[in-house]
Amino acid sequence: MTTARPVALVTGASSGIGKATVVALVKAGFEVIGTSRKTSGATRRDGVTFLSLDVTSDDSVTAAVEEVIQRYGRIDVLVNNAGIGSSGADEENSIAQAQRVFDINVFGVMRMTKAVLPHMRAQRSGRIINISSILGFIPQPYMAAYSASKHAVEGYSESLDHEVRGHGVRVLLVEPAGTNTPFNANAVEPDMPLEVYAEQRRIADQVAVSFGKDGDAPAVVVKSIVAAATDSKPRLRYAASPNARRISTARRLVPASVFDKQIRKTNKLAG
């Protein structure tokens, strides 16, 4: 089966930003394939084909991409949305915990990218849209592994974009701020909790929940994803909301000492 419409593949499509993205891309004229670990076999609903995919598995990634190519003959847009959060002080999280976060948030992006790039190069066109975060360019206490993973995605994406642009492929970043989704509920909890961090961890968790509850609706972020997929002259970075744009501007223009104090104030840290 082939299609005259451009083909978009979206990871982490079972809820939140990913779920809203597949719907929006269908409306924008794409043939859309949404993936998640929760999908059992290939199903189709609301104009979206859903496939099972685990971004931490080389075999799963290869099989899913090959199935899309066999069905539709091409992939024009890849949205790397699958991700997981983390909480707790870094000292409270084992290396195994950090590896889990990186395996999904960083190496999952790399696996998907490596699987689709040969096809995009062959057709001399394609866009890889990586869902980053404002925590890809600012720090967040008690979310060190997650913030580090998004910093890694930022550096990887910008570097790769230079490598593949001459082949007709772009690698783009969408940077949400706080978003009202179930994302925080699935964050990796510290596996070595320490009493010395317990109270501050509790405060940090409350701050994270508040940011999510008062954050943008997924539809706000999705507008930036659709723009990245369809703009005739795409930008490397799309700040996904007015709040994300304000924070990005502050990070670049506000003196480091002032920005540091604001981070500590926001997270109710002494000193």
Describe the structure in your own words.
The chain has 271 residues and is an alpha/beta fold. It has a single domain, classed as NAD(P)-binding Rossmann-like Domain (Rossmann fold), CATH 3.40.50. Helices cover 48% and strands 14% of the residues. It has an 8-stranded mixed β-sheet, with helices on both faces. Helix 1 crosses helix 7 and helix 3 packs parallel to helix 5. It is globular. The model has no long low-confidence stretch (mean pLDDT 94). Keywords: Oxidoreductase. It comes from Streptomyces pratens. InterPro entries: NAD(P)-bd_dom_sf (IPR036291), SDR_fam (IPR002347), SDR_oxidoreductase (IPR051911).
Summarize the structure.
With 271 residues, the protein is of the alpha/beta class. It contains 9 helices and 8 strands. Strands 3-4-2-1-5-6-7-8 form an 8-stranded mixed beta sheet, sandwiched between helices.
Q: How many structural domains?
A: 1
Low-confidence residue ranges? none
Strand order of the largest sheet: 3-4-2-1-5-6-7-8
Q: Give the amount of beta strand, in percent.
A: 5-15%
Number of helices: 9
Under CATH, the homologous superfamily reads NAD(P)-binding Rossmann-like Domain
Q: How many individual β-strands?
A: 8
> How do the helices and strands follow one another from N- to C-terminus?
EHEEEHEHHEHEHHEHH
Quote the average pLDDT: 94
Structural class comes to alpha/beta
Let me know the largest β-sheet. 8 strands, mixed
